[in-house]
Amino acid sequence: MTPAPSAVQTPKPFKPRIFSGIQPSGGLTLGNYLGALKRFVEKQDEGIETIYCLVDMHAITVWQDPEKLRQQTREGAAAFIAAGIDPARSILFNQSQVSAHAELGWIFNCVARLGWMNRMTQFKDKTAGKNAEAASLGLYAYPSLMAADILTYHATMVPVGDDQKQHLELCRDIAIKFNNDYGVDFFPVVEPLIEGAATRVMSLRDGTKKMSKSDPSDQSRINLTDSADQIAAKIRKAKTDPEPLPDTAEALKDRPEAKNLVNIYSALSGQTVAAVLVEFAGAQFGTFKPRLADLAVAKLGPITDAMNRLMTDPAEIDRTLGKGAARAEALARPILNKTKDIVGMIRSGSE
Ligand code: AMP
Ligand code: TRP
Predict the structure, then answer these.
(1) Which ligand ends up closest to the CA of 264?
(2) Same domain, 135 and 250
(3) Does 282 lie in the same domain as 165?
(4) Whole-model pTM?
(5) Of all helices (H) and strands (E), which one includes residue 20?
């Protein structure tokens, strides 16, 4: 029997699939954990198909010491697993092992427009105060490779921190332009997932700057490899203002350092900011900071311990990345092949 029209489900052309990446360009920070890793685990546990990548090709857009790059890639993989990524459920690998990223990246370099790239604020920030002419061509093309990372899997959702919003808009523009230029409906228009209290964790030394693995001051960030004592000392010394904590989130608006510490507490504890303020309204930082330090140590300590255990067997990490890469390759290759057919590139096996 033919179902009534209202009951007819239009099949969605793209099935839900999550992709995200982290650069192995340094040790991971609390910002990476709260803005990315913790949410990657939540998405995996919701049962969505998840693909996570250590983007080593992005990392070399700025020179990396080869031995450190290898070490940081393994450490990144260990952090994913320690935080709860199960390599049997999620696909976990490093980008350079799946050449589809580079191949589709080139095709996208020919779709993206110079004008679009010129508007990318991250490139401007990374070259600010420096000689932009001396930046690598790779750093400039970085967002186009990022679009290839996502679209070579037809991923539909991308969990990231707030700083990646513009790059994901570019990814949407590339997908739309490719589809228009070739008259196809081939690449999905991805949805950025930028959610929660910690989409932008700020520096502990300056509440107006993002916490970053590349900040010259180690005091500005909490590293996932820091010991309990280091974490406690960094939080104790974190910049604050002299006022006690207020009772509303609104009152934190012009207090960037206070707001950052409350946001971190909220994200680590899973409580809303409002609930945190109900608990701490009127408290001085002398009271709040030790509580935050205890919470951070309780949440991060087990992850650091698991990372350290995993890092004692680098060969096993390499095997895990290799298996992940083989699974990623199996998903990416047919999509890349179809892309080449659409573009008009001859390849053996196509007709
Ligand atoms: P990156 O370290 O630049 O490779 O970033 C990897 C992921 O972590 C991206 O989704 C970023 O948006 C996220 N991320 C990096 N730093 C922060 C931060 N300070 N706060 C929130 N998310 C961040
Ligand atoms: N550009 C991202 C960052 O620095 C890392 C990244 C590369 C990424 N490729 C990606 C994130 C694809 C999400 C999806 O944070």
Answers:
(1) 1
(2) no
(3) no
(4) 0.93
(5) strand 17-22
